[in-house]
Amino acid sequence: MIKIKLTLTLLAMFYLMVELYGQQFTKPLLQMEKLESIRREFVILKDGKGNTYVHVKGQPNAGVVWIKDILFETGTIEFDVRGKDVLQESFVGIAFHGTNDTTYQALYFRPFNFRAKDPIRKKHAVQYISLPDNDWPYLREEFPDIYEASMPTVIDPNDWFNVKIVVTKDTINTFVNSLQTSVLTVKSLHKASSGKIGFWTGNDSDGDFANLKITFNK
User: How many domains does the chain have?
Assistant: First the structure.
């Protein structure tokens, strides 16, 4: 009887481990004590419906509001983000595999280019970078149209939109809202390793972030 109980206990533990594999990180992440930044000022706000979001204030150069005590290698990062339709004043996205404020990968958006009539501007709407060696000027010059792409015109540049980034050891796929096709698929330029995740904004750009969900592959 003792052996049977022990076997059933081990089986229960095994099935629990299987269930937990790939689950979302559900601890509250949008709290001041969970966030930190050197280059960015930020505040926690609530909208008219009582929903919490992080507002990152615009400051010179790019910066990241890091989430404490989370290291991410592969899996899915999902969040809602809001920028604005003001030329060269809205660069919003997510940084991951971060070591510090100058070493990370990031996927970000230029909302002011979402509905641009100029075809050159339009195809510069979503951008991948891997710092410090592969910033956007270098990638655009050396690999045109590979690490940036356009966004569907149905996306309102002044409104919230949902982003889901699927990160494997080799590739990064980016989906927006309910679209089933990736708006940008790239091969990673950074050796996949565990690192920090944070809300990213570009030079003189503010931005709003909400509903962060992180699903780990392992």
Answer: 1
What is the per-residue pLDDT across 59-94, written as a single tens digit (0 to 9) for each? 999 999 999 999 999 999 999 999 999 999 999 999
Q: How confident is the model at residue 218 (pLDDT cuts 50, 70, 90)?
A: low
Which among 124, 152, 150 has a CA at the least distance from the CA of 139?
124
Q: Looking at residue 114, which CATH number applies to its domain?
A: 2.60.120.560
- Of 62, 63, 96, the closest CA to residue 79 belongs to 96
- Distance (Å, whole) CA 56 – CA 40: 7
Segment 10-32 shows an average pLDDT of 48
Half-sphere exposure of 90 (CA within 13 A, CB side): 21
Facing residues of 131 across strands? 104
Which long-range CB contacts under 8 A does 182-189 form with residues at least 24 apart? 183/126, 183/149, 183/150, 183/151, 183/152, 184/107, 184/126, 184/128, 184/147, 184/148, 184/149, 186/128, 186/146, 186/147, 188/105, 188/130, 189/105, 189/130, 189/133, 189/134
Tokens of 29: 């992440």
Q: State the DSSP code for 72.
A: B
Domain holding 51, by residue range, is 25-216
pLDDT in tens, 190-202: 876 899 999 999 9
